[in-house]
Amino acid sequence: MRLEMRWGDSARTLAADFGQRAVAHDREGSFPHANFADLQRAGLLALAAPRAWGGQQASVAELAEVIGAIGYGCPATALVLSMQYLQQRGMFRAGSFWPEHLARQLVQEAAGSVSLANALRVEPELGTPARGGLPATVARRTPDGWRLSGRKIYSTGAPILRWYVVWARTDDAEPLVGSFLVRADSPGVRIETTWDHLGLRASGSHDVILDGVPTPLDHAMGLAAPGAQARDVNAQADMTVLLGALYTGVALAARDWLLNFLRERTPSGLGAPLATLPRVQEAVGRIEALLLSNQRLLASLASDLDRGEQIALAESGLVKTLVMRQAAELVQEALALTSNHGLSRRNPLERHLRDVLCGRIHTPQEDSALVVAGRHALEQGQRTA
Question: Does the predicted TM-score (pTM) go above 0.85?
Answer without folding.
Answer: yes
